[in-house]
């Protein structure tokens, strides 16, 4: 991968941006505890359902052309603890076709 030059970079795809060996404000938040916490967080990136919802909201508001291409909003509710629920989840994930899946929950709520 080619490293970016110093300075501001506009129009960089988010996936490319995330691959750069650099820090951003979210990466530095664990530094409030200790530098070791920051180093550990950088070496062990995490992705949660809540982070996916936040990313989807950001894209929907600020980059709507990307939304349908990158995110799939669940179409039905299910209980993932049951056999039927696991089958429904498998169908939803298949329909997502590699996009980030945002699960529909009871009522109008999402994961």
The end-to-end span amounts to 34 Å
Oligomer: single chain
Number of strands: 2
Query: What is the C-alpha radius of gyration, as a whole number of Å?
Result: 17 Å
Provide the low-confidence segments as ranges.
Answer: none
Rounded mean pLDDT is 86
What's the SSE pattern? HHHHHEHE
Describe this structure in words.
This protein has 111 residues and is mainly alpha-helical. The protein is built from 6 helices and 2 strands; from the N terminus they run H-H-H-H-H-E-H-E. The protein has helices at residues 14-19, 25-28, 35-43, 49-62, 64-70, 83-96, and strands at residues 71-73, 100-102. The protein has a two-stranded parallel sheet with strand order 1-2. Strand 1 (71-73), helix 6 (83-96) and strand 2 (100-102) form a beta-alpha-beta unit. Helix 4 packs across helix 5 (64-70). The chain is globular and about 50 Å long. 4% of the residues are buried.
């Amino acid at each position: 991968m080619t490293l970016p030059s110093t300075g501001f970079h506009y129009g960089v795809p988010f996936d490319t941006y995330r691959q750069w060996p650099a820090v951003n404000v979210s990466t530095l938040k664990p530094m409030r505890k200790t530098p070791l916490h920051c180093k550990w967080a950088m070496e062990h990136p995490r992705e949660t359902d809540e982070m996916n919802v936040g990313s989807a909201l950001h894209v929907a508001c600020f980059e709507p052309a990307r939304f349908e291409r990158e995110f799939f909003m669940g179409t039905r509710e299910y209980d993932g603890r049951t056999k039927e629920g696991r089958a429904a989840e498998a169908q939803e994930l298949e329909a997502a076709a590699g996009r980030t899946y945002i699960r529909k929950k009871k009522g109008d709520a999402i994961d």
